[in-house]
Amino acid sequence: MTTMRTLFLNPPSFAGFDGGAGARYQATREIKSFWFPTWLAQPAAMIPNSKLIDAPADDIPLAQVVQMARGFDLCVIHTSTPSFDNDAKVAERLKQEYPKMLIGFVGAHVAVLPEESLTASKAIDFVGREEFDYTLLEVAQGRPFGEIDGISYRLNGAVVHNKDRALIDDMDSLPSVLDVYKRDLAVENYYIGYLQHPYVSLYTGRGCPARCTFCLWPQTVGGHVYRTKSAEAVIAEMAKAKEYFPQVKEFFFDDDTFTADLPRAAAIAKGLGKLGITWSCNSRANVPYEYLKTFKENGLRLLLVGYESGNQQVLNNIKKGIRLDIAREFTKNCRKLGIVIHGTFILGLPGETKETIAQTSKFACELDVETIQVSLAAAYPGTELYRQSTQNGWFKKDEMVRNDGTQAATIEYPGILSAREINDSVARMYSKFYFRPRPIGRMLVSMAKDPLERKRRLREGAEFLRYLWGRQKPKAAQPAVAEREQVLA
Ligand code: SF4
Question: 215 C-alpha vs ligand 1 centroid, how far in Å?
Answer without folding.
Answer: 6
